[in-house]
Amino acid sequence: MTDPARPWSTAYAPGVPLDVPAPAQSLTETLAQTAEQHPSVVALDFMGAVTTYDTLQRRVDRAAGALKELGVEPGDRVALVLPNCATHVVVFYAVLRLGAVVVEHNPTYTADELAHQLKDSGATVVLCWQKVVPEVLGSHGETSVQTVVSIDLAADLPWIKRAALRLPLSASRKARDAMRGPVPAHPAVRRWGTALKHATPLEATHPHPDVEDVALLQYTGGTTGTPKGAVLRHRHLAVNAAQGQAWTGHGAGETVLSVLPFFHAFGLMLCMVYVVRIAATAVVLPRFDVDAVLAAQRRRPATFLPGVPPMFERLADAAERTGADLTSIRSAISGAMSLPVATAEKWERVTGGMLVEGYGMTETAPVALGSPMSTARRPGTLGLPFPSTHVRIADQEDTARDAAEGERGELWVSGPQVFDGYWQRPDETGSVLVEHEGRTWLRTGDVVVVEDGFVRLVDRSKEVIITGGFNVYPSQVEEHLRSMPGIADVAVVGIPGGDLGEKVVAAVVLAEGATRVELSAVRAWSEKRLARYAHPRELIVLPDLPRSQIGKVLRRVVREQVMDRIPHARHTEHGHRAD
C-alpha cells in the first residue's frame, strides 16, 4: 500500500514493507535467540577457524565473566582497539551482555588520537590488540583508563596456522610480526588469555540490557572534524539491522564476506549486528587483501558482500584476470563513498549478482537510504529511504521550506535509527537534531536532489574528504601541519584518487626563510598525530592561500588550483620545490 507521505515506496523491491516493527530485544537477546535456534550454524570463520553460534554464545558468556571479574559494571564504557578477528565479535557482545557500553576505536590511531577519545568517553577498561598497547599506554595518564587488556590476534587462528608462526622461516617471522607485538610490562596491563583461563562464565540468569540502554559510543568527526561520540542505543542498532533485513530479504543460510573494519559503523552493523540477526555465517578477514579474499571465497563461498567501491573494483579486476569464481555473491551493498556506475556494471557482469549503493552516517546507525535490490536500482544514486524512514530536502537558504523536485537542498533524515545525540555535547547535538512539523530530523549537511523519488548526492557542505571509505576532516590535518617547522599556512583538500575515491592533498605556504618542503617530511610529521589514511599523498606549494572577505580559506578555489597544478607540478616522493 502506498503512503502519500512516502511516494518513493512505489519503487521498493517486491516484499519490502513501508515500516518495520520497533525492536523488542537488545542485541544480546538477539544473539541468545539465534544461538538457541541455530546452534550448529557456523557464526564465524576467521582464517579457517570456525565458531558455531552455540560456541559463540558460550565464548561470550565466558568473556563477560572475565570482564565482570575485571570490574566492568553496567553503564561503564569499555574501549575496543582491535582489527577484525573472532575475539572482536566475542568481546563486543560480552561488553553489551554486562549492560556496559562499547566504544570502538581504529587500531591505527596514534596515542594522541586515542587519548582524546578515551578521555572524552571516560572508558575505564581498554581491550586492545597487542601491537597497539604502547599507543594506549601513551595516553594512559590523561584518561580514566584503569585496566589495559592485551589481546593476541594469533590466538584466533586455526591451530595449524598458529603452529606455523613458530617456524624458523622468514615468511613465518613476517606473519608473526604482523600479528603480534611485545607487551610492555606495566601495572595496568593484563593479558586476555590469562583473564579467560581463570574466568567463571556469566550465569544465564544475569539480566540482559534493556533495548533502551546505550550500547555504543561511535566516534565521528561530524561537521567540525573534532571527534565526538554518537550515542547509539540497542534499539537504534537493532532496528537498523531489521531495516536491512527487510531491504535485502536475507535470512539464515547467508554467508557474509566480512572485510569491512568492525570499528567503522558500516562494518560494525553489517558484519557484527546484521549477521547475528539473520543467523548468517561471517567470513572474517583482518583486513582487505585481494588474495586473502579469493582464498576465503574458494574455502567458503560468500553470498553477500558489504564493501566500499575500491573493494569491488579490485575483486572484479582479479576475477577477470585470474578466472576466480565470484558468482556465489548474489547481492552486495556499497557504502562510505560514491559508487561509480562503471564499477557497479563491472561487478554485476563478473558475478551475475546485484550491487546497490547505500547511504548513511554514524548518526543513523548507520544506514538510512539504499538503492532497491531489484531491477529498479539506479547506480550513481543514494537510492530510497529505508522502511520507517522519512527524508526531506530542505531549502539551503530557508530551511523551513522544502526544496522543489529537482532542486538542490540539504538532506534531512528522520527515523527510528537516528541517534539521540553526541556524548556530553548538547550544543552540537542541538545543531544537527532539529524539530520540524512534529518530527525530529537529523541535518546531514549533504546537498542532494531528488529525481523520481531517488536521492542523488551533488555536494557535501561538510568538506569532509572520503578516502578509501574513511572520513578525513581537513581542519584536523591542517591544524597539525601548521605546527610543522617550515610551514606558515596550509589548506587540505581532496581530489579524485582512483579507487581510493579521493586523495588527500596539502597546499602549503612556506614559512619565511624556507625554500622547500618535502612530502616525505610532511608524512613523517603526520605520523605523530594522524591516522595513516589522513596523511597527505600529494603536496603543492602556493605563495598564499585564497581567502574570503572575512578571511576564511576558500577551499573550493584551493582545490581548483590543486587540480590545475598537480598534473604539471614537479612533485616527487622526495620533495616539492617552492616557486
TrEMBL record:
Alphabetical list of PROSITE patterns matching this protein? AMP_BINDING
Q: What is its EC number?
A: 6.2.1.3
- TM spans, by residue? none
Q: Where is the AMP-dependent synthetase/ligase domain?
A: 32-423
Q: Which UniProt keywords apply?
A: Ligase
SUPFAM superfamilies xrefs: Acetyl-CoA synthetase-like
Provide any one GO MF term from the record: long-chain fatty acid-CoA ligase activity
Quote the protein name from its UniProt record.
Answer: Long-chain fatty acid--CoA ligase
Species whose genome carries this gene:
Cellulomonas bogoriensis 69B4 = DSM 16987
